[in-house]
Specification:
With 425 residues, the chain is of the alpha+beta class. The chain folds into 2 domains: 4-106, Helix Hairpins, CATH 1.10.287; 120-424, Bira Bifunctional Protein, Domain 2 (BirA Bifunctional Protein, domain 2, 2-Layer Sandwich), CATH 3.30.930.10. The chain contains 13 helices and 16 strands. It has helices spanning 4-9, 11-20, 24-67, 73-106, 142-149, 154-160, 171-189, 204-209, 235-239, 297-314, 361-366, 391-401, 416-419, and strands at 124-129, 194-196, 201-203, 222-223, 228-230, 245-248, 254-263, 282-292, 319-323, 335-343, 348-357, 368-371, 379-380, 382-390, 409-410, 423-424. Strand 4 (222-223) and strand 5 (228-230) form a beta hairpin. Helix 2 runs antiparallel to helix 3 (24-67), helix 3 runs antiparallel to helix 4 and helix 5 (142-149) packs across helix 12. The longest helix has 44 residues, at 24-67. The protein is elongated and about 110 Å long.
Length: 425
């Protein structure tokens, strides 16, 4: 969420940020409404101040008449009317403030200056790693090799829950556990993250804190009777861990890692990548979250991204790093690097991680602050997160990139101690 002073005093700057995202036409009515509300707020404040001055004068006149033994009832009635007017003006100001807050919740973050304008076509590849098997003949798509090896059972997943749900069997189930342990161990032991195990159901305030609500409610699985939501990513509970708290600056930067199942309805995605593991409603993921000071958050983004890249290198999966343009950057993000692996069986680059810095956008919504020194005013932390990594597409890429001529799949060396074998066959 933005500082409300942007709506009040820096509307041109806010409009420019929405233009860079390609959202200005869509959001112009909201911005126009905000300007109207700001005029109404200022008018209400001025009117209330004038009315308060009037009531003060009336109170003084009433006191004088009483001291003189004169009738003050008419003045007292006038004072009561002015008091009612002040209450009306205060109620109006509060209603305006509430509507302004609702508008703030609907506006995306401003991207950093280094983020290019434009949409997906303006994304840039900033680096690559490894050699893909693009164009190589005879590589089966992951759903075929997974079924042949007995590690995937997509028909029964659909029978149990519906399209977009997965059953991993035998070595497939063990592969999920192996990936979880490899990733969490690496991030804890080598990268210094604190491991967390978090709830899969969260309340509305938690979903609002990271920006999923109110905009993306249709994409969420909800439990209406309890006003709870299944998490779309562990980012949501982990980022909110210190909601409404003040940290000491000495604690920053601070990193957390959590494995969780993730649930997404994928509203509006019907017909896209429906085969196999490319677009599913429930999947597993290891998530990284960092808190940082405003001065260091950009450098922290590079650090977090390198941690996610480490996992792709350990899994020996060729990948590329994309720097997203403003129009392709997520609602809450100020800057994002996407990590994509190449899956030769389907001939596609698959996004397996988005690493983002959110500046104070999430922290302002969740009221997460830090104090630099005793006596100083608290400031909002900057939050970051990134997948390291999302399992379903990683498993798809592993089954395709490491597929061998006999139909078996070579297990990357770093994964072998966790899986207990060097091939899936």
């Amino acid at each position: 969420m933005h500082d409300i002073r942007l709506l009040r005093d820096q509307m041109d700057h806010l409009r420019e940020g929405m233009r860079r995202r390609g959202k200005l036409a869509e959001l112009q009515p909201l911005l126009d409404r905000a300007e109207q509300l700001e005029r109404e707020r200022r008018e209400a404040i001025r009117a209330a101040e004038d009315a308060q001055s009037q009531r003060n004068r009336i109170s003084q006149d009433v006191a004088q008449r009483r001291r003189a033994g004169e009738d003050a009832e008419a003045l007292m009635a006038e004072g009561r009317a002015v008091g009612a007017r002040i209450a009306e003006l205060e109620a109006r100001r509060q209603a305006v403030d509430g509507e302004m807050q609702d508008i703030l919740l609907q506006l995306p973050n401003l991207t950093l200056d280094e983020v290019a304008e434009g949409g997906e076509e303006a994304n840039t590849v900033v680096r690559t790693w490894g050699t893909t098997r693009e164009g190589e003949q005879g590589i089966a798509p992951h759903w075929e090799v997974g079924e042949a090896l007995g590690v995937l059972d997509l028909p029964r997943g659909a029978k149990i829950s519906g399209s977009g749900f997965i059953v991993y069997r035998g070595l497939g189930a063990r592969l999920v556990r192996a990936l979880m342990n490899l990733m969490v161990d690496t991030h804890v032991e080598e990268h210094g993250y604190e491991e967390l195990w978090v709830p899969l159901l969260v309340n509305r305030a938690t979903m609002t804190g990271t920006g999923q609500l109110p905009k993306f409610e249709d994409d969420m699985y909800a439990v209406p009777d309890d006003d709870l939501f299944l998490i779309p990513t562990a980012e949501v509970p982990v980022t909110n861990l210190y909601r409404d708290e003040i940290l000491d600056a000495a604690e920053l930067p601070r990193g957390f890692v959590a494995f969780s199942a993730c649930f997404r309805r994928e509203a509006g995605s019907a017909g896209k990548d429906t085969r196999g593991l490319l677009r599913v409603h429930e999947f597993d993921k290891v998530e990284l979250v960092r808190y940082a000071t405003p001065e260091n958050s950009r450098a922290e983004l590079d650090l977090l991204t390198s941690h996610a890249e480490t996992m792709l290198q350990r899994l020996e999966l060729p990948y590329r790093v994309l720097k997203l343009a403003a129009g392709d950057t997520g609602f809450s993000s100020a800057m994002t690097f996407d990590l994509e692996v190449f899956a030769p069986g389907v001939g596609k680059w698959l996004e397996v991680s988005s690493c983002s810095v959110f500046t104070d956008f999430q922290a302002r919504r969740a009221n997460i602050r830090f104090r630099a020194a005793a006596g100083e005013k608290p400031r909002f932390v900057h939050t970051l997160n990134g997948s390291a990594l999302a399992f379903s597409r990683i498993i798809a890429a592993l089954l395709e990139q490491h597929q061998q001529a006999d139909g078996s799949v070579r297990v990357p060396e770093a994964l072998r101690p966790y899986l207990g074998r060097d091939t899936l066959r």
